[in-house]
Records
---
Amino acid sequence: MTRRACFTSLAAVAGLARPAAAQRPPLHATVVYAVGREPTMPIPLFTSNAEANEDLADQLFLHLAVFAANAKGATDNAMSPALAKSWHRIDPLTLVFDIDPRARWHDGTRVNAHDVLFTWALATNPKVATDTRFEPIASVEAVGDMSVRVRFKRPSLEQVYTFGFLLQPLPAHLLERLAPETITTSEFARHPVGDGPFRFERRVAGQSVELRADTTFFLGRPTISRLLFRTIEDPSARVAAFITGETDVLDKIPVQSLPQVRQRAGGRVSDPGSNVLVYMLFNTHSTADSSKPHPIFGDPGVREALTLALDRPTIARTTFGPSAQVPDAAQSQLWSWITAGTVTAQPANVARARTLLAQAGWRAANGDSILAKNGAPLRFSVLYASSSAPNNTIALQAQQMWRAVGVDAQLDRLEPSVVGKRVGLGQFDLWVSRVGQDPTPSSLVQSWSCASAQQPGSTNRAHWCDVTFDRLVTTATTAKDQPKAWRAALAEMAAQRPAIFVAAPGNPIAIHPRFDNAILWPSHTWLSLWQWRVRPSAALPRDQ
Amino acid sequence: MNRWLRYRIADAIITAIAAVIALIVLVRLLPGDPLTAILGDRGADPATRAILEARWGTDRTLLQTLASFFGGVLHGDLGISLSEQRPVTTVLAERLGPTLLLGSLTLLIDFTIGLALGVWAALHPDTRRARLLGLFTLIGYAVPSFVVGTLLMWIFAVKLGWVDSGGLTDTLLASDAPASAVLVDRLKHLALPLAAMVIATIAVPLRQQRTAALETAAQPWVLAARARGVRPAAIAWRHCWRPALTPIVTLFGLWLPMLVAGAVFVEYVFNWPGMGSLLAHATFSRDFPLVIGAGLVLIAFVQLGSLLADVLYHVVDPTQRPS
């Protein structure tokens, strides 16, 4: 072989090698996420309060503003632009949002102020929406084609959140010809057209919803090409699907499965915290006559005794795992910034519980192990939904712990809709409840204020009212030192004991090790999913 | 025969209508209400509740509900699912296919292999293999299907990795995948739910057939056939099996509705998008239109099973035929 031929051969090899690296097919990174309930209505304002629908809607539809990195709370300075490129304040009651002119609906139409106004009209239409969180907003109007002016009823530090985050605009050009009450049954609901990083691809009934990246997304091309929401109802089947590699992400991991899942995820289990709060709500009103106090729970001393009789940390950890924390008031881990990063509670004190019960007149009688007062035993029912395994674990453990101090708790385990009906009618003694809290503590007014206590059909199920708490909340919404102001409000709630706050669970989330930049949010966990990346060296066939 | 069949079909339709009316009445008696189930954490003031109830028809009287339902049925409209906000007929159509696939294959295996094993067990009553067969099928029958399903999943999907853990298909499979890949994918997803269903159900037809065949095996005509030197296989299928079919026909008629709603737990464990789990969900969330719609399909299958059983009686038992 001549020297020239050798060079030619080497060049050919080099030439083959270089293009092979350069021409490696681009990754089509795929994320498969298992949800417990099929997302059939991922349209903002119509999500029926179902988590999977809301998660999916976050990928399809943009918020005007989202939370900034490391945001604490939902004050205006915690928010950063999304669909709105900016906002500015006219006066303490007025904000103007400027829509990013680059934003487009997935059909190519430009997003404009009319879309925002149209969505606002839907959000305040009683035929469509039941969301009371827009109550602080007085009016919304267009300023030109690309800006909206929002007037609020009162000053607040959370005006950007209240409008900019809670409202996800819908495409007016596709929906305004429909009657509002027919949107959910329209073609749009089957094939939503959004303005988010992903566009709707297809739904396979009962199995999955597939989204594809919008490669023209104005905030940057998504680094995830395909997003699949797989419906897997059985929690153990969800675990199995993650372990077998059929899914990439697993949240709400059952406590007993954590070690296996951790092993599969290469130890990569993150816990961004969660907005879930689990508590046992006291009905302080008589179930027979709501104008009278409850014969047992009307006494704050008894409420305190029942709280102190429980070893809540044990209940929380055995039910929700080691990341669960125990609050003394309505505070999930989402609001841990109020108490410097942790949520803590008064420890159990069985001796003190016994003393308090004795002081309230509940004493052992006739050698019976159950305490009594004026011949009536210390007996009440604990109402909870049969669909929730954690509720059952909590109720069973509490029952045992209360029995040790002479309290007879009767477990009333019923179907969720029956529980909801009974609670709505005030027909319960103690109700084991679970709620997902909003990003801001000012949302406490929805369930724990005197105003909500007066409002029929509100989520203040026990009609709890404490004017001091109301005053402290009002102060906190405009206070400069937010953590201190909210600590004061929560301390007042803890002192009044409207409920036994059992747990602020964490949310361990396992992610396949091939993903980088997997940022998770405590609420709206998957907002940054479009920016996740797959390491090319670890790509799976489904990423090709 | 034709007249009898027409009468029998009319009877089935009238019974189905009565059953649907009973279902609607019973559904309305269920405690809890759909609005509470759908609103969940969010409250609604009385005015909003009234608007939503009017929109979803949950404020109708019984007579209005009946009129609306049967009026809709005539036009092929079963209303809108409250939880899914889609036409009930669409939701049912999506779920019926997977259910029929799983249910019909289960019935097919139960009533072919199950019956064959039943006859075999009757002809070999005192053998160890027959006793083992009885024991294993009884264990399968006794253990809840979701336990069997979970075990199968952990062994064959998680530990061995032979099949997928659940679902009807691999939704990541390319739309232009070759037919062979699609077939393999279907089989991989079908294997475990079908195995769980068969394990949980095959004991019944097997034992029923065994008992019936044991009875006929002692009949004089069987002894006579044996005395004539007829081959054992011919004795089994010609002289024992056919006379022993009558109770099996009854069983088949009763089991046909299992096609639709017999696999709630298996569907749940294997994430099989069928009618059983849909019906359970609809009941749970008080999605009355969907419950009634699914109930209508179930009632139709019950009537169909009963009708089919009656027709089969006439086929297998000449004494039942009308003169």
---
Amino acid sequence: MIVQLLFALGLTLLSSGFTVSTATAQLASADSMAEPTSDPLEGVNQPVFQFNLKVDEYVLHPIATGYNAIMPDAAQRGVNRFFRNLAVVERFANNLFQGEFVDAGQEVGRFLVNTTLGGVGFVDVADPLLGWKENHEDFGQTLGVYGVGTGPYLVIPFYGPSTVRDTVGMVADGAMNPMSYFLSTIQILAVRAGTTTTRVINYRSMNLTLFEDADRYAVDLYGATQDVYLQRRAKQIEE
Amino acid sequence: MTSLRAAFWSIVGMSVLVFSVPAWASNDSPTDLLRGAINRARAVLENPTHQGKEHYQQRIAKVKETLISLFDSEEIAKRTLGIYWKDRTEAERKEFVQIFTALVEKTYANSLDRYRKDFEVLFDQERIEGDFAEVDSRIVDPVLQKTFSLNYHLHRLKDKWLVYDVVIENVSLVRNYRNQFHRILGKKSYADLVASIRTKIQQLDTAPQTGTGL
């Protein structure tokens, strides 16, 4: 078994184009003494964070558990892809805003292919068939690319971690939703509530142990969650 | 789909289980060191004689023994305390390294049992600059068709390469712990932080171990 494993790993290492090089890039050797994350809105964020945890514990998690029990894994992934497919305008526009013209074009191509051949987006056929991967960009990232600072960390009720900049970006992305052009405000709110609820429950059902794992690992859950969000956002914008 | 999360956490566990114990001297490159230790840890986890709940402690102990030489526990603990490290006495530093190491071990030991033998471990690139190195790797879950990035940060200490941080899916574990600890130290005393860590360790000690092996 060990020989087989080594053999398999050897092959995968070769096929992955494994290289060893001495780099000129600055290695992050001294970042460890950085100052703590600034959180001027913590007085508001903490209660909202606790509220969100309770909403999750008493509402979202039980519903998602039931949903998970009746919904096959493949169907959950399909529903997730369906909602991601619908967010094409947001990704297309933000790729364009950031000068990623090829990626923007691929987003349109992905939408057309997945909506037609992929059963209105439940199946991602564009990636395996054409190599067109989803290029997630949102308006918060676009603002970041143009040098707009993150602003303070912000926890949004029912939503979770964000920053002031990303919250502004989220509103802008919402305005790009095609529904905005065809429906009245009341209709939009009703439709959004329905789709958001379904999307969130589906996502939560795919990550049932999310908070349990985080809570297991964290000495300070608020600080751990905040840092995961900020580190990942910083990397997304950098890329 | 809970298996996706399970896969992630098992990879986390695999990567950072042991931040303890001294290192061996070697002329191997950082990648060679990591690859060798990870392969040995995988072999332990896949060994039929280590399967089942009844062999949990034995399995975890064996993996620890395999990975122990990779990590610089003092450096990791020091970096999680950051600016607060210099204010600590020698005795406090020693105690902190010991309890932080215990915290990490207990946090991730159970996660190890979510490991699956069909995970692929790929090493992509190694960068060396003076006494610092970074090794980029990926874990591929062929069932979920998901790839997790896993980057190791190492430094050379007396001709030994030792890991001082692990960055999983763009999240540095050292930075994450540091943010938690700094938040606590910003409002409370160092003794309170130690108490919080000890409480967490106790909670983990009493938490049920769910893993049964492969």
